[in-house]
Amino acid sequence: MATTLESVDVVTVGVGWTGGIIAAECAKEGLKVVGLERGRERGTEDFSMVHDEYRYAVRYELMQDLSKETLTFRNNRKQRALPMRQLGSFLLGEGLGGSGTHWNGQTWRFLPYDFEIKTMTDKKYGANKLSADYLIQDWGITYDELEPYFDRFEKTVGISGEDKNPFWGKRSSDFPTPPMKKTPILQRFEKAATDLGYSPFMMPSANLSEAYENPDGQKINACQYCGFCERFGCEYGAKTSPEITVVPTAKETGNYEVRFNSNVVEVMKEGDKVTGVKYFDTVTFEEFIQPANVVVLTSYVMNNAKLLMISGIGQQYDPETGKGTLGKNYAYQILPGATGFFDEQMNTFMGAGALGMTIDDFNGDTFDHGDLDFIHGASLSSTQTGSRPILSNPTPPGTPSWGAEFKKASIENFTRTLSVGGQGASMPHKENYLSLDGTYKDVYGVPLLQLTYNFTDQDRALQSYITEKAAGIVKEMGAKTVAASGGITDYDIVPYQTTHNTGGTIMGADPANSVVNNFLQHWDAENLFVIGAGNFAHNGGYNPTGTVGALAYRCAEGIIRYSREGGSLV
């Protein structure tokens, strides 16, 4: 029997970047907010002097426990979907801060082209540039409309960067802090890219170049370049994360409560409104109902979509008929690139998650696609994130994968290897989608989410083109051997590739082709908001966090307005 608790103004499901931003903004306006977090409490003090690659990077200390809840996967509808038993292709965060604790800190604004991709592509290349199997659509908001929210997120985070990219959208103000150190490795990339006629610039970073106090009064420290960022929490409080910024801001108002070990299993709905959520205490297995005037889904892409499906809110996408929007437009990313092996040693084992230089000469529509059989592209970067000894064993092509020769080559090349990698944009395809599995359930008796996904011809063409560009830069950097990424065939759920999953709860201007409007308000329930990378109508050539942060501030503005006025916000 579920215990019904006292109603609150706002309840969020998940306490990462989106949940923290919503809580901070709403609590500052006097709204009573409860954040339900399925994981445990943690903070900077928990990561003090813990440079344990095995614990965090191999055994995934900060990630979701798949023995309790996972997802099932198949490449196409003819296959039987099977559970993902071990974290592989992507890593699902859990605990206070979510993925915002174990991220690298690379913080981008999607390009103006991304938000109006359908309109701009059709105008320049015609409506048949890609086949009708690709579900390309505009986002229902423009870059210029979203720019103030980008600016606000970057000032909250303290992003270190430089406005030297000729291809990205116009900024209303400069970066809050200067760019990170331009190391000898990055200078090598800069010279090679410049000599090839490209436009390199320092990567926008949430590993801060200097100490910073944000507009809410939260203090963030300067990066120590220890090289333990991705999959780790920062022991210095220098990699900006929710638990050192927006969560403390929310708590300081006195209007915010976080409940840990609280796994939400259903959004309660009556008529055209939601009434609250049902959740389990993951320690005692007690069941609770938390009533709320506004419910905000602020968990990861997969969990937001699953909760809507479990709760029967919205129409499930059907690839056979094309009807429905929930689960539609799931997109991943591809990783073109090349690795170079050099004669001289370099300081590759030090660095930071977002210490890097990038070119956008082949991202978005910054280059002509007229004679190409794909759209969009990739950012190309050289990053110095810290090569750790367990997972970093680069060897030249032809080296045996074990034995004395492998060991010798691994030791020789550990500090003599540099890579140029791309984040390739992924376009949505009618056969790539999220749904509920009809066979498997989680520990709470709830059906697992089912992922149906495979790479497409668009992905393969983009991979080949961008890889060639990356290999050219690596060669220009002076590598004695260049190993380019191979072509891609079928997608596999292992090994790790990227955690940049998008889609499933997409935003738009029309309920016929989207789940939420441009305030992230659900079309079918006016007091339900859904915020995260699931709102992206396609994936881009960048990390998603900066764009997610901007959307979260947009969403918070909408929630506050709704709490005062009610009704649809568009």
TrEMBL record:
Transmembrane listed as a keyword: no
Ranges where the Glucose-methanol-choline oxidoreductase C-terminal domain occurs: 428-552
Organism: Planococcus versutus
Protein name, as recorded: GMC family oxidoreductase
Pfam families membership: GMC_oxred_C (PF05199), GMC_oxred_N (PF00732)
Glucose-methanol-choline oxidoreductase N-terminal domain boundaries: 218-329
Family: Belongs to the GMC oxidoreductase family.
Keyword Cell membrane carried by entry: no
TM regions (residue ranges): none
UniProtKB keywords: FAD, Flavoprotein, Oxidoreductase
MF-aspect GO terms: flavin adenine dinucleotide binding; oxidoreductase activity, acting on CH-OH group of donors
InterPro entries in alphabetical order: FAD/NAD-bd_sf, GMC_OxRdtase_N, GMC_OxRtase_C
Top-level taxon: Bacteria
